């Protein structure tokens, strides 16, 4: 993989050293973008080339397109072999009514594709909003970047594995208008109106991938508690990465920690210990971030880079960057605490619904407690499939 030449701009006055650990300098720096309002698809016009900066009044008449006439891209018309075009029919065919069904439990909505109890988190509007907030947290954490690897502007085939609401998929497609970007998830929570170079499919990523043609860049983010067989998934991602292509993972070590002992003995700590225990009881790794580098190496990836970010719980940090990150994380956790807990505590650990609600009240009290200085860690690991 090509090595870096640029260091990302510090966020809110803090240095790169202050925002992460074990940092091999990342590659291309992208400027921070304002978050898209949740669920709003990009306008198709966003992926069109920008107007020339020349004042149209001064341009010669030959350069000025007629108003209200939309030019036809002849290359697109002539490209009968377009992979995107081919896939559209596969996509339409795959959208059977089964994937649009949902199941309901404890007052929350869950996916119903295959066995609905497989994935422990809901997929309702509250969860969708939380995932979009989480997307913003990832971007703040990475200094405004959508990803860490160097992805050439000419990248063609991109896959977002477990794409959730599709917000990353669409942001990437906006930045890389010439790429075809496919998002796959088990839940139908993606918008219908999407940029022309984006496509979503409902599928189980633990099954064989449906697309035999390899991808130039595969992205897989925030799948803690979701995956039964991580080494198999990482191997499958390797097998579907084109020689010379890149795969990138971003995932949690969801161990709740504090460096000054302020988390010790709190309900927040007990909650933070019980959830991973329950996740492991049903074979869903809560801390995949810790193992990603090993799994990638075992799968065959080379030139592996690994970066670790701390994410404070609450705005307790003294530097502006971590204070902001912690504030967003507080909002996200406060909103997500129920979604994380219901199936793990009731279905796995055998608690009652009422007991969980009492626990959540105490957890939310601790989340607001200014004397508790807790954080979790996020691992970004990326590498190349050898040519
Ligand atoms: C925590 S969300 C992360 C979503 C997205 N990657 C992001 O970073 O915003 C995990 C996603 O994995 C999806 N998921 C869980 N198990 C899956 C499976 N076996 N196949 C496909 N998607 C799955 C869930 O539906 C959910 O949207």
From TrEMBL:
Keyword Transferase: yes
A GO MF label: methyltransferase activity
Regions of compositional bias (Low complexity) in chain numbering: 24-53
Example GO biological process: methylation
Matches recorded under Gene3D superfamilies: Vaccinia Virus protein VP39
Pfam family, one: Methyltransf_23
Keywords attached to this entry: Methyltransferase, Transferase
InterPro entries named among the record's database cross-references: SAM-dependent_MTases_sf
Region (Disordered): 1-64
Record protein name field: S-adenosyl-L-methionine-dependent methyltransferase
The organism of origin for this protein: Mollisia scopiformis
């Amino acid at each position: 993989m090509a090595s870096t030449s640029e260091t990302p701009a510090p966020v809110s006055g803090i240095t790169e050293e202050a925002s992460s650990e074990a940092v091999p300098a990342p590659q291309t720096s992208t400027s921070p973008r304002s978050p898209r309002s949740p669920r709003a698809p990009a306008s198709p016009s966003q992926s069109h080339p920008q107007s020339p900066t020349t004042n149209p009044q001064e341009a010669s008449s030959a350069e000025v397109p007629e108003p209200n006439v939309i030019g036809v891209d002849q290359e697109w018309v002539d490209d009968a072999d377009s992979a995107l075009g081919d896939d559209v029919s596969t996509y339409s065919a795959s959208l059977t009514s089964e994937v649009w069904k949902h199941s309901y439990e404890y007052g929350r909505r869950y996916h119903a594709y295959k066995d609905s109890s497989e994935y422990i988190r809901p997929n309702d509007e509250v969860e969708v909003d939380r995932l979009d907030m989480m997307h913003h947290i990832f971007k703040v954490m990475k200094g405004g970047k959508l990803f860490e690897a160097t992805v050439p502007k000419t990248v063609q085939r991109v896959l977002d594995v477990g794409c959730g609401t599709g917000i990353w998929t669409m942001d990437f497609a906006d930045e890389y208008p010439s790429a075809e970007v496919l998002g796959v998830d088990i839940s139908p929570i993606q918008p219908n109106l999407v940029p022309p170079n984006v496509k979503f499919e409902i599928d189980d990523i633990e099954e064989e991938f449906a697309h035999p043609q390899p991808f130039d860049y595969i992205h897989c983010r925030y799948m803690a508690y979701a995956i039964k067989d991580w080494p198999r998934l990482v191997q499958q991602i390797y097998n579907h990465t084109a020689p010379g292509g890149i795969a990138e993972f971003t995932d949690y070590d969801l161990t709740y920690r504090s460096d000054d002992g302020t988390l010790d003995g709190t309900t927040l700590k007990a909650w933070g210990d019980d959830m991973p225990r329950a996740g492991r009881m049903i074979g869903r790794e809560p801390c995949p971030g810790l193992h990603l580098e090993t799994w990638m190496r075992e799968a065959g990836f080379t030139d592996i880079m690994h970066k670790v970010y701390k994410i404070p719980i609450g705005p307790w940090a003294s530097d502006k960057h971590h204070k902001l990150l912690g504030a967003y994380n507080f909002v996200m956790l406060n909103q997500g605490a129920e979604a994380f807990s219901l199936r793990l505590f009731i279905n796995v650990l055998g608690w009652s619904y009422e007991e969980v609600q009492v626990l959540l009240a105490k957890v939310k009290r601790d989340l607001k407690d200014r004397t508790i200085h807790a954080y979790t860690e996020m691992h970004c690991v990326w590498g190349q499939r050898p040519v």
